[in-house]
Amino acid sequence: AMSGLQTANFQQLAEKFDFSRYRTVSDIGGALALLSRTLAARHGHLTFTSFDLPPVAPLAQEKVDQAQMSERVKILSGDFFRDDWTPADGITMGNVLHDWNLVKKKTLIRKAHDALPRGGALIAIENLIDDARRENAFGLLMSLNMLIEFGDAFDYTGEDFRHWCGEAGFSDFEIIPLAGPASAAIAYK
Predict the structure, then answer these.
(1) Pairing with 112, which of 48, 102, 121, 136 sits 20 to 30 Å away (CA)?
(2) In which order are the strands placed within the sheet that holds 24-28?
(3) Which amino acids are annotated catalytic?
(4) Is 5 a residue whose pLDDT tops 90?
């Protein structure tokens, strides 16, 4: 399901974001490593770590092997709340932050900040709600869906993302529209 929802967004990110100054990317909550594989196909200079829960690792490895990208995309497994993250120039999260309550969102953002060098970027691909909460009905409905499914999870606005990332020490921010109602929320260290 995640691959189906995110394919067009990941392709758009590969085209729209300037990865030229980065060398390494760590995808947190990488599922089947689709984001890593998509970016690797477009940006030959990048290497990747795709990190997700242990039961997902063999499935992700199978996809990476099928794409003949095992030299550039490494699969790691663990718990992204408890385990250390591989330092990288860029950290991506595709539909990850909206799965959690505010405390856990901020924990993940802080962990991203800690794993990035100065100039590194956190890229969150989500159905961002517009700051006025009046235009992206899909983002609002997705937020309601997350609340129903998980009890305290929710989607968020670009301004929310800027605020939380600013608290963690990020200094510059950007929003890049992707496919449909999705956007990439980017925070630079």
Answers:
(1) 136
(2) 73-77, 47-52, 24-28, 90-94, 121-126, 183-188, 172-177
(3) 98
(4) no
